[in-house]
Amino acid sequence: MSGARGSALATLRGQIERIETAEVVHQYDRVALGHSEVDTALKGGLARAAIHEVFCAGPQGAAATGFVMGLAGRVTARKPLLWVRQDFSDIETGALSMNGLAELGLDPRRVVMVRAADVESALRTSADALACDALGAVVLELWGETRQFDLVASRKLTLAAQSSGVTGLLLRMAAQPLPSTAETRWMLRAAHSPPGSAWEAWGAPRFDAELLRNRHGPCGRWIMEWKCDECQFSEPSTYSQPVAAAPAYRPDPAVPWQRRAG
Description:
The chain has 262 residues and is of the alpha/beta class. Helix content is 31%, strand content 24%.
């Protein structure tokens, strides 16, 4: 019995040492998102070799997906991106558009899609992918409340990310935040995009991003605008609104108005 206890303690000490060592190695490996206030809160930017959770408020799945795409574009560093989603996600939220990726400034040729039959397969595939240092990031998209994704599953993903240096982005649809080992946790809503130029059908994508959890800094809420050409976030741009032209015919304000007799 004592031998079993000693073995268990040794295993736990090894796991703790592995986590602490990995945190030290990747402590300063961060990538700036481009939004100055957000980068300040994140101590320089989004931490690589960690897990980051993104939730959507209500029917805001498109906004959360776009935000995750932006984060992935910042952290992949021209490496491939592996996107794991459940096979029925296309029915619930629609398929990811490769043209949409290109319009956001991302290279769709570097995106590899994996459809998993169930949550267990999605978690197992993501953990294996996070252990591969040839990837730039792994997106795991899960739909609904899933009992399979608990603290144990979260620790496995975190350990795999820390060991390889690959960033994990967990996109949660129709789910509520629960305790996890994530470095950051975000709640996403769509923000109003101002009108674009005359040759654009819409303005730059904007996100109402609320940072609910930040292990190494403060939380907050910001409007983050995505710059497709620069492939980074920024503060909301100020757009000058056109002023309506004065009417060509109007009464002279110096002449008092008089009622015409009729």
